[in-house]
Design goal:
Helix 4 packs across helix 7 and helix 6 crosses helix 7 (about 195-210). The protein has two domains: about 5-130, MutM-like, N-terminal (N-terminal domain of MutM-like DNA repair proteins, Alpha-Beta Barrel); about 140-255, Helicase, Ruva Protein, domain 3. The two termini are about 30 Å apart. A four-stranded antiparallel beta sheet has the order 1-6-7-5. The radius of gyration is 20 Å and the shape is elongated. It has helices at about 5-15, 40-45, 125-130, 140-150, 155-160, 170-180, 195-210; strands at about 25-30, 55, 60-65, 70-75, 80-85, 95-100, 105-110, 115-120, 245, 250-255. The protein is an alpha+beta fold. The chain binds zinc ion. Zinc ion (ZN) binds near residues 235, 238, 240, 257 and 258. The site of zinc ion has 7 residues, from loops.
Length: about 260
């Protein structure tokens, strides 16, 4: 499921390929992903415009088509972008294809159709309406401590709560906790100030490194959890077998030796 590093990678991909080109058509192959408007309306709004700039917040990507029109993309479980030449075949699960005038196209591919595509007028207003917290990379230590001081629950569920901090999902929450050596089910009320600061540093480190690796697991350090998580996987630090548990409704992977539960 695309999280902050994945969506940031999509943003950079879109910026590098699809800006400033006139959109001559929009091929809506699955209107199911469109929110609050029909395929025809969607096409009419974007035709003859150009994508001028993009902005990411948490797991959401916004692309400005003009001062009052922003395309919003949420990648759900399996969404991604693919830029290709008109004579090439569109990717297999292309749901919406933006056709540019100079022989190129941009597809939003989404096998499982949990993604969302919409048009909005104002990004900040939209973020407010959705109740999203600040982007995980915009949060400073004071704000991070404030969030952790004000809420209750397990550390992993707080990290994944988009209304508190936007952008972190199941995979990167586990990675951050592995680096900070904190058990995912630790109650945040039991975390000392020092541990919260450590968690903050781990959050920044993991997200920034994952972006630098283009969110590609093959490019991530072998000392990370990600290349090892799953049944039979071994802890990259101590070599013991990783464990899984359901925490906050999602499967957490962790090392019970390196990430001891304090409470
Ligand atoms: Zn370990």
């Amino acid at each position: 499921m695309p999280e902050l590093p994945d969506v940031e990678t999509f943003k950079r991909y879109l910026d590098a390929t699809s800006l400033h080109q006139r959109i001559v058509n929009v091929d809506v192959r699955s209107a199911y992903l469109l929110k609050d408007l029909s395929g025809r309306e969607f096409t009419r709004e974007l035709k003859r415009r150009r994508f001028e700039a993009s902005r990411r917040h948490g797991k959401h990507l916004f692309v400005r088509a003009d001062s009052r029109t922003w395309l919003r993309l949420h990648f759900g479980m399996t969404g991604f972008l693919h830029y290709f030449k008109s004579e090439e075949k569109a990717p297999r699960h292309a749901r919406v294809v933006f056709v540019f005038e100079k022989h190129y196209r941009l597809a939003f591919d989404d096998q499982r159709k949990f993604g969302e595509i919409g048009l909005i007028k104002d990004v900040d207003e939209y973020l407010k309406k959705r109740g999203l917290g600040p982007d995980a990379l915009d949060v400073d230590l004071a704000e991070f401590k404030n969030i952790f001081g004000k809420h209750r629950g397990t550390v992993k569920s707080i990290l994944m709560n988009q209304k508190l901090i936007a952008g972190i999902g199941n995979i990167y929450a586990d990675e951050i906790l592995c680096r900070a050596r904190i058990h995912p089910a630790t109650q945040i009320s039991s975390l000392e100030d020092k541990a919260v600061a450590k968690l903050f540093r781990a959050t920044r480190y993991i997200l920034e490194k994952a972006i630098a690796a283009k969110a590609d697991v093959d490019l991530m350090p072998k000392s990370w959890l990600l290349p090892h998580r799953g049944k039979g996987g071994k802890c990259p630090r101590c070599g013991r077998e990783l464990k899984s548990a359901t925490i906050g409704g999602r499967t957490a992977w962790f090392c019970p030796h390196c990430q001891k539960k304090t409470v």
